[in-house]
Structures are given as structure tokens and as C-alpha cells.
Amino acid sequence: MYRILVVDDEEKIRTMIKKYAVFEGHEVSEAQDGMEAVEVCRSEAFDIIIMDVMMPELDGFSACREIRKFCDTPVLMLSARGEEYDKIHGFELGVDDYVVKPFSPKELMMRVSAILKRSARGDGEPQREIVSIGGLTVDFTGRVVTIDSERVDMSPKEYDLLFYMVKNRGIALTREKLISDVWGYDFYGDDRTLDTHIKLLRRTLGGYSGHIVTLRGVGYRFEE
After folding, report:
1. What is the model's pLDDT at position 103?
2. What is the assigned CATH class of domain 130-222?
3. How confident is the model at residue 223 (pLDDT cuts 50, 70, 90)?
4. What is the DSSP string of the chain?
5. Which residues contact 152 (CB under 8 A, 6 or more apart)?
6. Which residues in the chain are classed under CATH 1.10.10.10?
7. Over residues 50-73, mean pLDDT
8. pLDDT digits (tens, 9 = 90+) for 115-137
9. Residue % of the chain over a pLDDT of 90
10. What residue stretches are annotated with the OmpR/PhoB-type domain (predicted)?
11. Angle at 164 between CA 159 and CA 166, to 5 degrees
């Protein structure tokens, strides 16, 4: 059983999500706006937060920014808007996943399950491994990336994507495999999520972005 915080100003949305989450055996708390969500997170611990973007008092992006100041609970963002800018903004804040309304409750819970399973995999004893490619160093054990000896900050998903691609360097990775292995759920056809993260990752890598090669019609490959 996991503890889930559902944040949305629409009661019917909160009720629908809670119904499916409780059915799967999870415990659910609710907040109706961003300010309430921040206050609840200060006093209670949750395994994941499902939060709407457009809310009164404090929007989801601002609430996520405040919550990230004192905890790293995974966040799945909901929004009626699907523009790339919104997704980029959310991912830069450390959002783990992004679902556009209207959504399938079943798919939403599958994504929640995937995020929670991915988080749980980090509980075991890690195998030490550091890979250096020129001035780019990836420390898998410490979850640290440095470029020309300078540590760089990435969103959680950027780390996941880079680590996966570096571990599979030299291998052609299809879009479907990247989505399935990095996000942890079956591919649903919205490959813009992957493209957005690749764009963010390339921007973060700067002069080393050329290591990520686009394979037209296939996917991507990380080259040394």
C-alpha cells in the first residue's frame, strides 16, 4: 500500500482518482489547491503526489517548486494543456511524469505504479560504476554527472534517461524501448514526452550533446 496525495480544485477529478487508487489498495489524501498541498506535505509524508497544473491560490508548477525545497516525493502532473512548453517547465521542476486531461484512470494508475516501482528499485545496495567519456563523467552510484569537472544539476528524469543511454551506449534504442524501460510503462503513442526530455538533456549536456544521436524513424543512440 502506498500513500498518495491527490491535488486538484475539481472535486470530481479527486473523487475519480481516489476511487481507482483505493480500489488498488492505496491510501489517499486530498488537497484542493497548491497552497493546501504544500502545507499538507510539510506535515505528512507521501509516496507520490498527483497534482493538477491550473488551480486557484497556487498553481501546480509553483506548488511543486515549493515542495521540492523540502522533499523529493515523486510528482505526476495533470493538465488540460499539452503544449511542449508546459511539459518542459514541469520536467525542469523535477516532475516525474505528465498526463494530459482527459485521461484514462487505468492508464493514470499504471503510470503511478511505474513511478513507485522505479523509486523502490533504488532501495537495494547499488553496484559501483563510473563512466567517463572525455570531459563527461557519469557516476551511477552517487547519481552525479560532471562536465569538465563541474557538477551539473538535472531533473530526476534527465538522470534516468542519461544513465540508461550511457549504460546502453553504442546500441540503437527504439523509442518504444526507451519509453518502456525508462518510464516503466507500456508505450501509449505519445512520444513527445521522450522528445522533450531528449531536448532538455541535450541542452544540459551542452558541448557533449552530440553524443546523443538521432536515428531517424527508429529512436536514439548514445555514442562514445
Report:
1. 87
2. mainly alpha
3. very high
4. --EEEEE-S-HHHHHHHHHHHHHTT-EEEEESSHHHHHHHHHH---SEEEEESS-SSS-HHHHHHHHTTT----EEEEES---HHHHHHHHHTT--EEEESS--HHHHHHHHHHHHHHHHGGGSPPPP-EEEETTEEEETTTTEEEETTEEE---HHHHHHHHHHHHTTTS-EEHHHHIIIII-S---S-THHHHHHHHHHHHHHGGGGGGEEEETTTEEEE--
5. 145, 146, 204
6. 130-222
7. 90
8. 888 766 554 444 457 888 889 99
9. 46
10. 128-224
11. 95
Which amino acid, residue 71? C
Residue with cell 502506498: 2
Q: Which residue has the cell 546500441?
A: 171
Query: What local confidence, expressed as pLDDT, does residue 187 receive?
Result: 45
| pLDDT for the residue numbered 10 | 94
Give span(s): CATH 3.40.50.2300, the chain: 3-123
pTM of the model: 0.60
Q: Which residues contact 161 (CB under 8 A, 6 or more apart)?
A: 178, 182, 197, 198, 201
Residues 6+ apart with CB under 8 A from 95: 64, 75, 76, 77, 155, 157
Q: Can you tell me the distance from the alpha carbon of 216 to that of 53, in angstroms, rounded to the nearest whole number?
A: 33
CATH topology assigned to domain 3-123? Rossmann fold (3.40.50)
Residue predicted with more confidence, 34 or 70: 34
